[in-house]
Amino acid sequence: MSAPTYETAVTAYRPVFGLETHVELGTASKMFCGCATDFGAEPNTQTCPVCLGLPGALPVANAAAIEYTIKIGLALNCSIASWCRFARKNYFYPDMPKNYQISQYDEPLCFDGYLDVEIAGRTIRVGIERVHLEEDTGKNTHVGGATGRIHGAEYSLVDFNRAGIPLVEIVTKPVPDAGPEAPEVARAYVSELRDILRTLGVSDVKMEQGSLRCDVNTSLTPAGSSEWGTRTETKNVNSLRSVERAMRSEIIRQAEILDAGGKIVQETRHFQETTGTTRSGRSKEEATDYRYFPEPDLVPLAPDADWVEQIRASLPELPAARRARLQTELNLGPDELQALANAGLVDRFADTVAAGAPAAEARNWWLGYLAQQANSRDLEAAALPITPAQVARVIELIEAGTLSTALGRQVVDGVLETGDDVDTVVADRHLGLVSDTSALTAAAQAAIEANPDVADKVRGGKLAAVGVLVGAVMKATRGQADAATVRALLLEQLGVSE
Amino acid sequence: MASLHELSAAQTAEAIRTGEASATEVARVHLDRIGQIDGELKAFLHVDTDGALAAAAAVDARRSAGEELGPLAGVPLAMKDVVVTEGLPTTSGSKILQGWIPPYDATITRRVKQAGIVMLGKTNMDEFAMGSSTENSAYQVTRNPWDLSRVPGGSSGGSSAAVAGYEAPLSIGTDTGGSIRQPAAVTGIVGHKPTYGAVSRYGLIAFSSSLDQAGPFGRTVLDTALLHQVLAGHDPADSTSIPESGPDVVAATVEGARGDLSGLKVAIVTELTGASGGYQEGVLARFRDAVAVLQKLGAEIVEVSCPHFDYALAAYYLIAPSECSSNLARFDAVRYGLRVGDDGRRSLEEVMSLTREQGFGPEVKRRIMIGTYALSSGYYDAYYGQAQKVRTLIADDFRKAFGQADVLISPTSPFVAFEIGERTADPMAMYVNDLCTLPASLAGTPAISVPCGLSDEAGPPLPVGLQVMAPAMADDRCYRVAAAFEAAYQAANGPILQHLPSLGASR
Amino acid sequence: MSEDAPTVTREEVAHLARLARLAVTDSDLDLFAGQLDVILRSIARISEVAAGDIEPTSHAVPLQNVLRPDQVAPCLPREAVLAGAPAVEDDRFRVPQILGEEE
Fold it and tell me: Active site includes B179?
């Protein structure tokens, strides 16, 4: 039997997926101590007895972290626990200062919510099982191996600056009805979740910096069966694109095993950016028993109902509501806005419109040329080093006739390369359309004189031949002429009418 | 005139305040005494001569400058080595922390320093506070000043021996299942376990988080109360710290010493009378004598039954090991402490395991394994979960009992000081030292031990302690009753420590 | 002694020791198995108590919502942080080869 393709896999099997997302909260201090949380500090300069796990140290919970977690829960339509506790999750690892993580076990702060995602005209409701609060670990650097990864390393170095950073874990319920679009739905969920978190202002959600981390759970159910298959967990998924690729590759891999009559091993796998596939994690001798018990050093959390309502009332306009509003205000079709949302570009788009650009133009630029440029740089479009104001300016200059669309693209390239503002790039690179008619006329004259045979052809009725002369003028003006204007000028000079 | 080291803390503070003695003199006298007798007594793991003299000099300077000093300024104190002290070695009685110098002070260390108290050094203890005799210390076994072949109790045995042996008038211990009260009882001094949450745990090397409390030792109830006052109070660095300030235990002591307990209802707890056997007859005799004294002071004696107290030992030996198995996980050879076996070929997991095998003593290992067992999936509900339910029932028994009486009393321990090596072969034989002290630990309620006589059942005359238990936040009741009892006892018999055999060159 | 009293085998001790990162020598395995068995049998009495409907005590103080404001406080100076470390390299804690994977 030949290896399955994605299409055959999703025909024979129904993918079921779930996502676990960890979010580093952007609080000023750590979860259980007052250490600073700035990213990129010198190793072991942001630690104290508490986050180092020194004998005798005790945790005290960060009020802002609690509030942020409740905000996240409310934005995800969760119920907020009226009473809950922290719990110790016990396991040994060198980046764990206490060799237990203070987390939450069977009493999460928020639970039972949902997030609606739209794909290809369908709305899929992703259930949220729980949103809970815990502390992050330190960071290990592996030394001596070929790849800098743990396998084959001779020894490791540990930095505890990040130990104790507040972490929110968001766990979805299984999503059984996404069908073949499961990878896109998963990606869209993460994208929407990220937008929500950014809007709430609770995290800078930079996947590449690790402040937003996803684990993807995938399983396959044979078509027609009601029993769910064994699921695997894939870690090291560091971008939206990887979410999609990881799930795709895992679906194909599992289908191949099931097609051959094999069994899926419940395990943790690691996504590899370079190959786009997952590999098995090293097998553990026995499943880890975390021996959870309620954290005796912290007292229960009982968020006051009035406080929760205050937080709810203070929530900003969430992305879905914002999209609905923009749709009405800017008279856009739902698909148009959704395409922007799925690409993480709603903010960029809205800001470009706010800077004065017409909605259609703004949308076309972001989903068109800018998205292409992003792809070729392996970035998300929203991460391109160009601002909405700059994009609006380019559009404005095109509207004004200072730039052609082609020149506009060159200006964008210039902004991306140099970081200069639009007008500087136009001037430095002489990208403005030559609008001086006398200069153009002179250039047209010169082209005619340089190409007498072509000129004769045109005079003789072969209008198409004027293209050569247009090309010559464009070359002479380094592309900074409007082609249609040049053509009209040439024909006029040659005494020919369309 | 009594030597400076024979004064109580209150008398010492007064002598310094009036200028009769300088704090430096006082410190020197005590350091000399330690030098003379601690080779035998082995109460101290580390003596901080320079630090103590510097602290004493600072007190003298402030007094010369006319500053008003706190009630215990210049008084020497011995600190149990489970309490973190910046710049001073802190081992928790374990090899795994040999040589560790903490970079921070426990909150109670700071309070002691701020009060002008002169810390003489760190005292010996059972490793990680697990034990009732200091025989589990990785370093040395402390002797009981009453009989050097016997234990001073534990786990705060070094602190109790130091005070009973007149090496310091004050010391600090910690009590998780009885580790202040039992050593106080078997060395003939006063020791108090405060209401859980009354004294900060920040900087106490954790054994069992929901049970540990630091508390004072003294030769008199007043001294103990004065130190209690310095230690107690809210600490924002400890989430389990009670926000309200506690009652005035010094005032309660002074009032109690007037000797009038009329109107007070005192209950004997049926389950803590040794009725089912196992308590030494000498202990029971002294307890009966104590009841008679309280009656003469006007107290009404009743009896209450607290049926779940019979399960206190089982509950404690499930909860405490569970919490400690987690608390001791941080000793992993990575950031501090011992590292063994790192030969460039072994993995971290192996180095960690070897380090912990060599760094922890057998009792610690036993409790870690019991705790790991009790928390493991499949066993949690039956063991840890069940123990926490029984704990609720024990707290309920206390509540009901306090509906019928103001304080509960019992012997502090079923036994007087036992011989070194007598109870080390069988862990259970050691655990039963705590039978009377465990219930108050589990309920988080305050309890004090005050000397109530001598028993010669084991041979030499050895002290017996009376335990007085009160509801949560009512530490003052413990001190009041203890002070009343002490005054009456001493009026009839003189202070118990007058019978202490002499130690070293001077008494 | 109840019928459900545990008997702790060598293998169980070895398993517990592994979970707790405690290397236990062969001779100690038997010694500990015996001692743990005695202790656990005594502790197992806890099951005699009918406690079905009782709320477990999770905290010894009746407090809740103890929080601190989100304010930065001074950290320990790095020399102090690394001072007690068994091995240091590049201002980090150096540890031997790690076999297990991150969670």
Answer: yes
Residues in Cβ contact with A301 at an 8 Å cutoff, skipping those fewer than 6 apart: A61, A66, A81, A83, A84, A85, A86, A109, C64, C65
- Cα–chain center distance at A448: 53
According to the model, what pLDDT value does residue C1 have? 42
CA dihedral for C23, C27, C30, C34, sign (positive or negative): negative
Q: Which of A19, B97, A283 is nearest to C84 (CA)?
A: B97
Task: Say how many Å lie between the first and final Cα of chain B, rounded.
Answer: 13
d(CA B112, CA A131): 43
* Contact residues on chain A for C73, CB-CB shorter than 8 A: 29, 33-35, 48
Amino acid found at A313? A
Query: pLDDT value at position C103?
Result: 62
Distance in Å, alpha carbon of C51 to nearest chain B alpha carbon: 6
| Nearest-CA distance B106 → chain A (Å) | 8
Mean pLDDT of chain A: 91
Q: pTM, whole model, 2 decimals? A: 0.89
User: Inter-chain contact A83–C82, Cβ cutoff 8 Å?
Assistant: no
**Residues A415-440 pLDDT 10s:** 999 989 999 998 888 787 776 777 88
Q: Which residue has the higher pLDDT, B347 or A145?
A: B347
Is B155 assigned a catalytic role?
yes
CA dist B239 and A150 (Å) reads: 37
Distance CA B436, CA B467 (A): 8
CA dist., res. B352 & res. B344, Å (int) = 14
β pairing state of B447-455 and B300-304: unpaired
CB C22 within 8 A of CB B353: yes
- The pLDDT, as a whole number, for residue C94 is 96
Q: Which residue of B has its CA nearest to A62?
A: B239
CB contact under 8 A, C58 and A91: no
pLDDT at residue A378, rounded to an integer: 83
Can you tell me the distance from the alpha carbon of B137 to that of B128, in angstroms, rounded to the nearest whole number? 8
What does the pLDDT profile of chain C (103 residues) look like in tens digits? Answer: 444 556 788 999 999 999 999 998 888 898 999 899 988 888 888 999 988 899 999 788 999 999 999 999 999 999 999 999 999 999 999 999 998 776 6
What phi and psi values does residue B419 have, to the nearest 5 degrees?
-75, 150
Residue type, A146: A
Are B329 and A98 inside 8 Å of each other by CB?
Answer: yes
Answer yes or no: B389 catalytic: no
3 state SS of C82: helix
Global ipTM: 0.96
Q: What pLDDT, in 10s, does the model give residues A145-200?
A: 766 667 677 899 999 999 999 999 999 999 999 999 999 999 999 999 999 999 99
Both structure tokens of B481: 């009753």
Residue A180 has a pLDDT of 93
| Beta-carbon separation of B314 and C83 below 8 A | no
Catalytic hit among B8, B22, B42, B80? B80
* 8 Å CB contact between B192 and B215: yes
d(CA B455, CA B460): 8
Q: Is B88 on the interface with A (CB under 8 A)?
A: no
Report the DSSP pairing between strands A166-172 and A110-119: unpaired
Pair A281, A246: CB distance under 8 Å: no
Instruction: Provide the pLDDT confidence category of residue A270 given band limits of 50, 70 and 90.
Output: very high
Q: Where are the beta strands (DSSP E) in B275-431?
A: 300-304, 407-411
- Which residues are CB-contacts of A430 (< 8 A; sequence separation ≥ 6)? A478, A480
Residues A99-111 pLDDT 10s: 999 999 999 999 9
Q: Rounded to 5 degrees, what are φ and ψ at C34? A: -65, -45
**Strand segments (E) across chain C:** 67-68, 88-89, 92-96
Neighbours of A45 (CB within 10 A): 18
Question: Largest Cα–Cα distance in chain B?
Answer: 73
